[in-house]
Specification:
The protein has about 375 residues and is mainly β. The protein is about 10% helix and about 40% strand. Strand 7 and strand 8 form a beta hairpin. The longest helix has 25 residues, at about 5-30. The chain is globular and about 55 Å long. The structure holds (2R,3S,4R,5S)-2-(hydroxymethyl)piperidine-3,4,5-triol. (2R,3S,4R,5S)-2-(hydroxymethyl)piperidine-3,4,5-triol binds near residues 113, 114, 245, 246 and 302.
Length: about 375
């Protein structure tokens, strides 16, 4: 016969066991849309970001937002966090700071969006590219900013700003009799407009800038120079008149995969996806890759990067931002598993998931 004390002990132990299990789960589970504290317990501030793996660590670079509606302008700079396991992130500080000097293109109040960092093996330099808009000029300038550092965690030094692909026309260019190329031709001499952007480094170390151009109508994919510091005028014009932004490219089983959003400002819309056997195309559109509740709104987010998980074959994480334009600093992160199905990829909604679950999923699909 159990006495009352034994019953209480059993109930309390069971309760503690449940609590421990919940804590253990949350320690390694991605919880899309929830606050994501860094090592100081502060919500990570790296929006529109991307992740670079280097010498055993992951580095997450993103926009440091400030509170309130002005928070989407750059008053601080680009923030970096470091992690070994993709869950626990240590604050590595501001690696590119805004510059108060007169006429600096990265003056406080400029727009610095979607920073991405890649490593140039030849020069042993880290190169950061970002979407740059000059202070008080809205989104008119449509520039790329470039900054460099010998150390991954900075400080990065501003190198220059450019409109890409100045003076050249895209590969396989044929004049458009319907004048769908009028903005491309208008901007040929001063360089193409570049708003949302991303970088991709291929297996042969050739690097590419992917940018939304031509007043947001068309995406360009442009090869970078060998030092990764500029474009070289070799670019493809892809998805003409499809109004895509937030583009990201990743490669699996020798194929290039593309994800992007439509153009609706800070409001979410349905994601797009595509596949190609060559990075310059032809690209075949594959539709909205998202599956689950509110998949037609990319789960209320917008893509920013697709992260290859190191030490695995074809494990990728779809990274998106859930913007909060009224209080930019409180933007949330949606990191979700990428699953390959019948020559397409899918982004599956999950409130809480672990990398191990994704590995199981992959083996089910025999990918
Ligand atoms: C959507 C873009 O993807 C963001 O990076 C930002 O430029 C907003 N538009 C501004 O409206």
């Amino acid at each position: 016969m159990m006495n009352n004390l034994s019953i209480i002990v059993i109930i309390v132990s069971a309760h503690l066991l449940t609590l421990t299990t919940v804590q253990a789960q949350s320690a390694s589970a991605f919880q899309p849309g929830k606050e994501w504290p860094d090592n100081h317990g502060i919500h990570i501030n790296a929006h529109g970001g991307g992740v670079l793996w280097h010498n055993g660590n992951y580095y997450w670079f993103g926009e440091h937002k400030v509170a309130g509606e002005k928070g989407n302008r750059a008053y601080v700079g680009v923030h970096c966090y470091t992690s070994k396991d993709l869950h626990h992130w240590v604050d590595s500080g501001i690696v590119l700071a805004v510059d108060g000097a007169q006429n600096s293109p990265i003056a406080p109040g400029a727009i610095i969006e979607r920073p991405k960092v890649i490593y140039n093996k030849k020069n042993k330099q880290f190169i950061m590219w970002f979407h740059l808009e000059l202070k008080d000029q809205g989104y008119k300038a449509a520039l790329c900013g470039v900054a460099t550092s010998k150390k991954i965690t900075g400080p990065y030094v501003f190198h220059h700003a450019e409109r890409p692909d100045k003076g050249t026309l895209p590969i396989s260019y044929k004049p458009d009799t319907n004048k769908g190329d009028s903005i491309l031709l208008r901007d040929k001499e001063k360089g193409q407009m570049s708003r949302d952007m991303n970088l991709f480094v291929d297996e042969d170390n050739s690097a590419y800038l992917i940018y939304t151009s031509e007043e947001n109508r068309t995406v360009h994919i442009s090869q970078l120079s060998d030092d990764y510091l500029s474009t070289r005028g070799r670019f493809a014009r892809v998805f003409p008149d499809r109004f895509m932004e937030a583009a990201a490219i990743f490669k699996a089983n020798g194929k290039y995969f593309f994800v992007a959003s439509g153009c609706t400002g800070w409001a979410p819309n349905a994601a797009r996806s595509a596949v190609a056997t060559h990075i310059f195309g032809p690209w075949q559109e594959l539709g909205n890759p998202c599956e689950g509740p509110d998949s037609a709104l990319t789960f209320h987010g917008q893509s920013t990067f697709v992260l290859p998980v190191m030490g695995t074959k074809n494990t990728f994480i779809f990274m998106a931002d859930k913007w909060n334009p009224k209080n930019a600093i409180d933007g949330r992160y949606l990191w979700l598993p990428v699953v390959f199905k019948a020559n397409k990829f899918k982004v599956m909604w999950s409130e809480s998931w672990e990398l191990e679950d994704q590995a199981k999923q992959k083996s089910i699909n025999n990918e």
